[in-house]
Amino acid sequence: MTTDTAAPLRKDFRFAERHRVRWAEVDMQHIVFNAHYLMYFDTAVAGYWRAMAMPYHETMQAVQGDFYARKATLEYEASARYDEQLHTGVRCARIGNSSLLLQCAVFRDEQRLVQGELVYVFADPKTQTSQPVPPPLREWFTAFERGEPMVDVKRGDWTTLGAIAAPIRRAVFTQEQGIDAALDEDGADGEAVHVVAVNRIGAVLGTGRLTRAHDGVGKVGRMAVVASLRGSSVGRQMLDALVTAARQRGDRGVMLHAQASAVGFYRRLGWQPHGAAFEEVGIVHQEMTLPLT
User: Fold this and answer.
1) Distance between CA 240 and CA 236 in Å, rounded?
2) Domain end point (choices 117, 145, 173)
3) What is the CATH number of the domain that holds 137?
4) N or C: which end of the chain has fewer CB within 10 A?
5) Are residues 180 and 205 in the same domain?
6) Burial state string for 35-72 with b = 16 or more CB within 10 A and e = fewer than 16
7) What count of other Cβ atoms lies within 10 Å of the Cβ of residue 188?
8) Strands 204-214 and 193-198, how do they pair?
9) Which domain holds residue 271?
10) Strands 278-280 and 66-76
11) Phi and psi (nearest 5°) for 57?
12) Burial class of residue 242 in the structure, from the number of CB atoms within 10 Å of its CB (0-12 exposed, 13-18 middle, 19+ buried)
């Protein structure tokens, strides 16, 4: 966390949300309408929560409070135009007794276009009366701004991790995707290496497993991340842990069946498609491989 509220540079932000200017955001002067920058701030703040591995609503329920907007200020320095790529940085500048000050800035490359501050008050959701920011939240913001890890990936067997992994799998595969719960219980969990990702207050964010496929090749499967944390680093960290487990036991490679919507995610991490796409449990999948030797 920083107490410096001077005009920030792009390098001053640990987190920044990337986006392109849409046609609907440009006004009659052919520049982004001034009110949209507050929307950019708000969208980036949601990304900031994800970067901190903080499912917002569940976290606020756990700490029995919520943040309410109290004040927003913006200072315009230059204009953005249609189709330009921008980055909106967010950082925690100060935490008071019951308040949170977020500093935001919109950049085109290294040029700062708009800067501003968002002030939130932590309050009781029922009465909306202010109350002290809980120590776990204070530590969470401070740790993120110091560059500390936000996620702990636990590795173990089903006996150790099954009780916290199973609810995530049910929520994602059965409740969200409509896959028959019986298909998830294939008898392989007992022999698999499992990982579970948890955040700084112990909330379970995702899970995955590693089984044996054939001829010294491991198989990654049952990868599931809670909806609000998709697009964060949770999936990558779990996948890294499973690949490390495969490498440590001497596998010469790993493979997986990626849902079509996740192929891009695995490609960015070095996995390559193998063969034609196919249907599994009513969803289009693509086999992907990653050599380890």
Assistant:
1) 6
2) 145
3) 3.10.129.10
4) C
5) yes
6) ebbbebbeebbebbbbbbbbbeeebbeeeebbbeeeee
7) 14
8) antiparallel
9) 152-291
10) unpaired
11) -65, -40
12) buried
**Residue 190 identity:** G
- Residue 4, in any domain of the structure: no
Q: pTM of this prediction?
A: 0.89
The pLDDT profile of the chain, 293 residues, written as one tens digit per residue, is 655 557 899 999 999 999 999 999 999 999 999 999 999 999 999 999 999 999 999 999 999 999 999 999 999 999 999 999 999 999 999 999 999 999 999 999 999 999 999 999 999 999 999 999 999 999 999 999 999 999 999 999 999 999 999 999 999 999 999 988 888 888 999 999 999 999 999 999 999 999 998 889 999 999 999 999 998 999 999 999 999 999 999 999 999 999 999 999 999 999 999 999 999 988 999 999 999 98
Which amino acid is present at 210? L
Q: How far is CA 13 from the centre of its chain?
A: 17
Name the residue type at position 56.
Y
Residue located via tokens 């949300």: 17
Q: Do both 137 and 156 map to the same domain? A: no
Residues 98, 26: one domain? yes
Last residue of a domain, one of 145, 164, 191: 145
Closest listed residue to residue 54, CA positions, set 200, 223, 237 = 200
Specify whether 171 is located in the same domain as 131.
Answer: no
Those residues whose C-beta lies under 8 Å from the C-beta of residue 159, and which sit 6 or more positions away, are none
**Residue pair 55/129 in contact by the 8 Å Cβ criterion:** no
Q: What residues have CB less than 8 Å from 169, skipping those under 6 apart?
A: 184, 207, 222, 224
